[in-house]
């Protein structure tokens, strides 16, 4: 896909959600709506791909391989190209890796009716029609040559990862892994905070040794700076806490006597 085609495709998608002269804040809101709808559509396609079992319609091994690796939508496009490949015939062979194809119904004297397909070993096949370079899927001409050679699978160099089932599963697993890391970090911090409040609200006196150990552990984990990690906590403790340590609690509530001001009689 060229840069102009990519830009026009993006504009076409955005025009369904927002007008061209919309302000920026409305664009952001509509873009979030567009992203949410896109995620829902991808989830629906993934569900259909995993749940619906589609029957093979040609019986060729290469079709079974495409059904295994491609998503539902791309498999339908692949089948259409495979079906259309039956309209072509191999006219001649040039060397060991180049084939000349033509439409069986076309005029044989027309030079434009001939299409050249070149094999690059067993890893890749190229065609001068440029369909694979445009959308990342084999064309009917290349499939005709592969079926003629009794190839069992699509060449690895012609499998675009973005159209495969593994691409969706891998992206979901990476997203789940990143969200799990964030969740674990929040959970650890919450547990640490709960423990600090529990120790601070105890009636028992906190020993100086336990205080040093806790401060060293917290400072060492929160700051990689060795100067801060090796701070002189005994001097800080002696200068700050001269009396007995008291648990952290809310100040006592002052209750005033008499009638509340808001219920007093009006003069």
DSSP strand count:
4
What best-fitting shape do the alpha-carbon axes yield?
Answer: elongated
Tell me the distance between the termini. Answer: 83 Å
SS-based class = alpha+beta
Strand order of the largest sheet: 1-2-3-4
Give helix and strand order, one letter per element, not per position: HHHHEEEEHHHHHH
**What does the oligomeric state look like here?**
single chain
**Helix percent band:** 40-55%
Q: Which stretches are poorly predicted, pLDDT < 50 over at least 5 residues? A: 225-245
- Report the major sheet: 4 strands, antiparallel
How much of the polypeptide forms β-strand, as a percent range?
Answer: 5-15%
The total domain count is 3
Average pLDDT number:
77
Number of helices: 10
Function: Putative transcription activator involved in regulating light control of development.
Subcellular location: Nucleus
Keywords: Metal-binding, Nucleus, Zinc, Zinc-finger
InterPro entries: FHY3/FAR1, Znf_PMZ, Znf_SWIM
């Amino acid at each position: 896909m060229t840069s102009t085609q990519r830009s026009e495709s993006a504009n076409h998608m955005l025009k369904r959600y927002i007008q061209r002269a919309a302000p920026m804040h409305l664009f952001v809101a509509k873009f979030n709506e567009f992203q949410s709808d896109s995620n829902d559509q991808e989830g629906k396609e993934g569900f259909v791909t995993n749940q619906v079992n589609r029957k093979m319609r040609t019986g060729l091994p290469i079709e079974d391989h495409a059904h295994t690796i491609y998503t539902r939508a791309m498999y339908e496009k692949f089948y259409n190209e495979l079906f259309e490949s039956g309209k072509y015939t191999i006219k001649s062979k040039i060397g060991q890796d180049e084939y000349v194809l033509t439409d069986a119904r076309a005029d044989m004297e027309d030079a434009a009716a001939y299409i050249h397909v070149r094999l690059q070993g067993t890893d890749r096949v190229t065609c001068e029609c440029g369909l694979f370079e445009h959308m990342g899927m084999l064309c009917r001409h290349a499939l005709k040559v592969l079926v003629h050679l009794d190839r069992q699978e699509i060449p690895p160099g012609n499998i675009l990862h973005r159209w495969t089932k593994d691409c969706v599963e891998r992206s979901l697993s990476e997203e789940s892994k990143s969200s799990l890391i964030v969740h674990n970090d929040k959970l650890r911090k919450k547990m640490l905070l709960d423990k600090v409040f529990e120790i601070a609200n105890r009636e028992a006196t906190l020993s100086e040794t336990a205080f040093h150990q806790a401060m060293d552990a917290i400072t060492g984990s929160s700051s990689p700076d060795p100067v801060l990690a090796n701070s002189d906590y005994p001097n800080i403790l002696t200068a700050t806490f001269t009396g007995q340590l008291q648990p952290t609690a809310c100040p006592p509530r002052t209750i005033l006597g008499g009638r509340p001001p808001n219920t007093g009689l009006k003069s």
